[in-house]
Design a protein that fits this description.
206 residues, alpha+beta, five-stranded antiparallel β-sheet, three-stranded antiparallel β-sheet, 5 helices, elongated
Length: 206
């Protein structure tokens, strides 16, 4: 009878592989850390350290020493109910380091917001519903961080209303295009044929 072959994989290697697959790196090597977020996160825009904390080639002795889950782990909030901020969430990033991180985040804010909205869509953390000629955007609908924004379509597309076949008579469809992260608005069946709105402009203010 053939001998059954088995492969034993350590718990540490399984965890390491999972973390790589579940992790999004947004900023690299800022104040000696990589910053991003994981697949299960707080429902509020932020960045946290996602590197292992061994920049100088020194192998960590224990997980507790790392910046991914250990003592060096840090987080910054990037919004408060949609208002743009950049504040330490745990007091671990202060002074010159915080100012350097804030400057980098300011320079890369558009890129960060695009990635975060894609993350929100993936997790169903944002909804869009048409009410009369307004789109009601709701961020984090099932969280205590929930907030709403109103997008007035008459102001954005004044020519689409009125007249025969206009949006007054034939209301547009409102759906997120998850491949682009944009909001598709129009009466056409294909998302590509509709008007597209970048919801970052409405969700995040200040």
């Amino acid at each position: 009878m053939p001998k059954k072959l088995t492969t034993r994989v350590s718990t540490e290697k399984v965890a390491e592989r999972f973390m790589r697959e579940a992790m999004a790196v947004v900023l690299r090597n800022v104040i000696e850390h990589d910053w991003g977020f994981f697949s299960r996160e707080d429902q509020r825009m932020h960045l946290q350290t996602v590197d292992e904390g061994s920049r100088e080639g020194q192998k960590l002795q224990t997980v507790d020493e790392g910046s991914r889950e250990g003592q060096k782990k840090a987080k910054v909030w990037l919004e408060e109910r949609g208002r743009k901020i950049c504040e330490s969430a745990d007091g671990k990033v202060t002074g010159a380091d915080l100012r350097k991180l804030q400057a980098k985040i300011e320079a890369e804010r558009e890129h960060i917001e695009v990635m975060w909205i894609s993350f929100m869509l993936k997790n169903d953390w944002i909804t869009a519903k048409l009410k009369d000629s307004d789109i009601m955007l709701t961020a984090y609908p099932k969280s205590h961080n929930r907030y709403e924004r109103v997008v007035n379509l008459r102001e954005i597309f004044p020519g689409a209303f009125g007249g025969h076949g206009g949006w007054d008579q034939n209301p547009p469809k409102v759906e997120f295009d998850k491949t682009t992260g944009l909001l598709a608005v129009g009466t056409e069946d294909r998302l590509d044929d509709r008007n597209h709105l970048d919801v970052r402009e409405f969700l995040f203010t200040g």
